[in-house]
Amino acid sequence: MDRGTELELRHLRCLVAIVDAGSFTDAAVELGVSQAAVSRTLLSLERILGVQLLHRTSRTVTPTTAGVQVLARARHLLSEAGELIRQATTGHTRLRMGHAWSAMGRHTTEFQRRWHDRYPDVALHLIRHNTRTGGLAEGLCDLAVVRVAVDGRRYDHALVGQEHRYVALAADDPWARRRFVRLAEIAGRRVVLDRGTGTTTEDLWSEDAGPDREFTQDIDDWLAAIATGRCVGVTAQSTVAQYRRDGIVYRPVRDAPLVPVHLIWRRHDPHPMTHAAVALLADLYREGD
Questions:
Q1: Across the chain, what does the average pLDDT equal?
Q2: How confident is the model at residue 199 (pLDDT cuts 50, 70, 90)?
Q3: What is the Cβ-side half-sphere exposure of residue 205, based on CA atoms within 13 angstroms?
Q4: What is the architecture, at CATH level 2, of domain 91-162+260-288?
Q5: Domain ranges of the chain
Q6: What is the mean pLDDT of residues 262-275?
Q7: In this predicted structure, what is the pLDDT of residue 87?
Q8: What's the confidence (pLDDT) of residue 82?
Q9: Residue 1's pLDDT is what?
Q10: Measured between alpha carbons, how far apart are the two ends of the chain, in Å?
Q11: Exposure of 27 by Cβ count < 10 A (0-12 exposed, 13-18 middle, 19+ buried)?
């Protein structure tokens, strides 16, 4: 490798242009440079890599065996570079909101509608990711709706609302005929909990009065366990709105503490539309009270 020269994207673009155009002359036209510049760039690339990349004749230009391999990799790298540029330049025209289970619950559709009306130049994307940060820690979103404890050391956050708790039951459960259930009654049942992202923990009950428990890692598994009738679940009101299923009914838990709903975002890299999202969602929760 020529240690005095570093590989640059212009080297790769030149190689691809020569092969696609079929000649140095046509590649020069496509790249907007002289034919001599194309020749120098290709020669520089071959020196950097230490291999011949093209067979040249007076009429044809074809890749060598090494050239075929380098060409394939060059196309991939150029595509990745293009995607990087696209994301960097369009990042502020898109807002990705993550969530683990149920987005904004009954406010989800109205949030989407108002966002589109108010900010038509910023596309809104909802992303479900089954982690405590709704995909924020994984880099999948710009901010996330969470209903679990927030790590204030890593993330900034805002309380946008609170939700009532409901008990989820099999449709043929005797409690399905009732208007509401009390928290102490649930302690006598078997309760399915999501330890990762669920809003219900053993802390809802005292240590000596807690229910039997089983655990799951996903909303669909949680609902499937409840539908069998062997257990019940306690959840936030948002789940009621987002997951209406045959065989499952929800009843209010009258005396349970409310579930706080937060928006969280990266402290040192907030999206420019973060506070607009906070204000809109807080308004919707306030209107719904």
A1: 89
A2: confident
A3: 19
A4: 3-Layer(aba) Sandwich (3.40)
A5: 9-90, 91-162+260-288, 165-257
A6: 90
A7: 64
A8: 78
A9: 45
A10: 68
A11: buried
Task: Give the span between the Cα atoms of 256 and 41, in whole angstroms.
Answer: 71
Q: At what angle do helices 9-21 and 65-90 cross, to 10 degrees?
A: 120
What pLDDT score does 245 carry? 87
Closest CA to 163 of 238, 111, 95, 112: 238
Give all strands (DSSP E) within the chain, no chain letters.
Answer: 54-56, 61-63, 94-99, 123-128, 143-146, 155-163, 165-170, 190-194, 212-216, 233-236, 248-252, 259-266
Could you give the CA distance from residue 164 to residue 239 in angstroms, rounded to a whole number?
11
One fold for both 9-90 and 91-162+260-288?
no
What angle, rounded to 10 degrees, do the helices at 274-288 and 108-118 form? 130
List, for residues 223-232, the tens digit of each pLDDT value.
Answer: 999 999 999 9
Give the CATH class of 9-90: mainly alpha
Instruction: Quote the percentage of the chain above a pLDDT of 70.
Output: 95
3-state secondary structure of 234: strand
pLDDT tens-digit readout, 201-214: 777 877 677 788 88
Q: Is the pLDDT assigned to residue 86 strictly greater than 70?
A: no
Q: Which residues contact 131 (CB under 8 A, 6 or more apart)?
A: 100, 137, 138, 196, 197
Nearest to 234 by CA among 218, 217, 222: 222
- Alpha-carbon span 235 to 198, nearest angstrom: 8
Specify the fold of 165-257: D-Maltodextrin-Binding Protein; domain 2 (3.40.190)
